[in-house]
Amino acid sequence: MTPPYAPCLMDKFIAAVDALSDFIGRTVSWLLLFMVITAVAVALLRYVFSIGFVWMQESYLWMHGALMMLGASYALRHDAHVRVDVFYSRMPPRRRALVDIAGVFLFLLPMVVVIFYVSLPYVAESWQKRESSFQAGGLPGVYVMKTLIPVFCILLGLQGLSLAAKAWKMLKGDNDA
Questions:
Q1: What is the pLDDT of residues 15-49, one digit of tens each?
Q2: Alpha-carbon dihedral of residues 167, 18, 116, 124, nearest 10 degrees?
Q3: 21 class by beta-carbon count within 10 Å (0-12 exposed, 13-18 middle, 19+ buried)
Q4: I want to staple 155 with a disulfide (CB 3.0 to 4.6 A). Which of 6, 7, 25, 73 is the partner?
Q5: pTM
């Protein structure tokens, strides 16, 4: 029997997934600053100097996509995602834990599995073609951006499992959950 202070495998999983989500979330949050700077630069160049660069316009769209896909697990970890909170906020903690577990296993995981499965041929074809922008002067490497779709699924699925594990621990009476 393990002593009560020794972390179990579930605790290690939760800590590792939460740390990964925090690291990725804090790292990609810098894209927001670069995205705003790039958008301002595009607007200034276009409307003040009548100069436009397709690659620059695409770059802030790519940054936005990367921020959303890679930051989703961070948002789930910190409960910063959109939720209709009319009933959930008034529920006792045990009922919230049940809702969290049901939400992860009935909605979140099936969604990310379907998106992951459907995206693989799409991403593989893009890599095979070494797809680049359709716009003249656009960014090369669209296949790298499309790779973020299955990465999004993996990260969000792992964070969902971490959320479910925390809820399970709470249901089992772990006050630290």
A1: 999 999 999 999 999 999 999 999 999 999 999 99
A2: -170
A3: buried
A4: 73
A5: 0.88
